[in-house]
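Record Diguanylate cyclase (GGDEF)-like protein, 784 aa.
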Amino acid sequence: MALKTFRFRSKIIALLVLLVLGAQAATFAVVQVVTERSVRAELEDRLRAAERIWQRFHEVRGTRVRDSVMLLADDFGFRAAVASGDEPTMLSALANQSVRLNADLGALLRPDGTLQSSLSTAAAEQQQAALAPLLDRARTDGSAVAVVALDDVLYQVALVPVMAPTLVGWVALGSRLNAQYTVVYRDLTGFDVSLARVEGERLRVYASSLDPQSAALLAQQTQLTRDLGALREVRLQSARAFVVTQQVTAAPLPVVAVLQGSLDTAMAPYAALKRRILVLSGLAALLALIVAVLLARSVSRPVGELAEAALRIEHGDYSRLPRMRGKDELARLGSAFARMQEGIAEREAKIVFQATHDALTGLPNRARAVEALESAIRRCQREGGGCAVVMLDLDRFKEINDTLGHAFGDRVLVEAARRLRDATLPGDLVARLGGDEFFVLLDNADPQRVRERAADVLAQLRRPLELPDTRIHLDASLGVALHPQHGADAQTLLRRADIALYEGKQQRSGVALYRDGSDEIHLRRLTLLADLPRAIERNQFDLHFQPKLELEHGRVVHAEALLRWTHPVLGAIGPDEFVPLAEHSGFIHAMTRHVLDRALLHNGLWREQDLDLGIAVNLSAMDLMDVDLVDFIDQALRRHAVPPGRLILELTESALMRDVDYAVRMLHRLRGVGVRLSIDDFGTGYSSLAQLKRLPVDELKIDKSFVMQLSEGSDDAVIVRSTIELGHNMGLSVIAEGVEDDRSLALLRRFNCDMVQGFLFSAPMPGEELLGWHARFVAAPREA
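=>
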């Protein structure tokens, strides 16, 4: 009985043990299946999340490239250089922006898409072919960002138009998509990425975070070229991995990004768990059963929590971390997952911050500033009120960089940013648009106080800047545009604030408020700047001549050459408008040489017809900086057979006073050729007698502002008489311009003025008409 009882007990025990062992085995099998399924689901979710992060990563980089190219295309100096065909300035600006962006490709296309300039050594045909798809898209969308291949290298390239104000070209900048680019993404997400081109049923890998052998095996996975976006499990050597293929660009350059996550790596944390379950299976039946139940619960709960967390990450929700308890492997896995989630959220936030903020000053960048301005405009339209846009540019910042170095210039920019923040109210926004240009959005701004607030900002910047190794004085120019008075959208306000800034710099007024009509003036200036260099070759320039009369004998002795420009669209353009533009653009040298050559040509023709007149030509202040001008004048005199003494060069008094020492040296060189020298507009340049006696000049020309209203006993009469006596005492001839009535002429004769010029005798006329006018003047002379 006892034996039967023992056997029965044994059977019961054996049955229970076998049942528990079977349950343990079943539990182990279930845990194995559930774990692998959960890990697969988790890996799929993470890979999908990594796919979204890749899209954002790639788009943010493309946006930064495009914003940098748009910044270059919006730069006034660069647009002017492109419009005028200034090759060195274009290449310099393109190279500087490439260095700032760390770009590897830079090119400038003509409006028709042909290559004009490039920083690449690749053949022009290859570059044009690579950029052609971008150009087609940019012509439709206004700009384009895409991946192109050049010399077996992938580049992420942005292409934007250069407007001045019409299309004058296209500018492109691009960064190389190399292994370093993929490694940055792997460090960010933990997933490998490979950039490849679909070639039939194969992949051609350009860049990858994988080792070369794994990358070569990946290229042989022909199924990856089909059903882009599908999740697949592949085997590379003995390793299992999940991959998803995402299209980066379509035809004609089908580039894909292959994202890869290792399944074996994801399953590795569970190996220790399996061994512990096997050990626990050998314990007592009841203990094994209890442990199995607890273990099942401890496994299923954290895996579910991790799956839910992965689902939240898939939808971009990083706010709630997975709740994991305990200290076992699953808890450590959950903690690692939570840290990974925090890391992804932090890195994504960092990427977003870098995309919207300036790295040097920490201020919002242009994209963030435009976004804030648009938001403020919407609020104003919804709630009423207004806002103001202030564009600010530091004066002489290039001199600071060139003299004290770029590191010092960066410290100046950081200090300027700090002062701007201190000078604004909490609701205002300060941003750095690039270079030494800043932006201030004055929200809820009272139009009556905008000038005062802008002046306060300028006063803060003008305080002496004390740095450890030096002390400098900052200055700036501010342009202000108001909403809604000056514009209803962000781009209009920014453009008009920039126009006001330019006018403020020109007038040295510190703070300049946008004036109605300045848009048209700005566009007109850009048009004239673009067309001015081509005016000579298109025969748009004409020379007119105004005679000068000698009072003593009443005869014509000189004629002044005056340049006239007839624009095919804008009509007649006055010298007061196009000469400063020529000086600003550097075209003044070519224009002056054209005038000299044509004036001497006419003089030679007059001499052939027995009309021997001196010819007067105006020189700009910039012409004194032309070291080759003296040689050109000497050659032109010989070419047209004009005696040097018959050429009179007129320079304004203000131009000579800019740098008296240099002017004296240059005038001596010109005097050495044998030409005569005249000080034009005398009385307006504040020169002293000490300076005047140093100048080797032959004539003084009294400014017409003193002559046109000349009357007996007036202040103008005193000035004119004193100037004539001064000139004669210094041995100089004196000419009065602007003579328009007989009363002025009589006073000038009484004051013993040497020569006169003005509409009383003749308006400026073409050179062909001067001969006939002179013949009529000689035949019927008037009292002079």
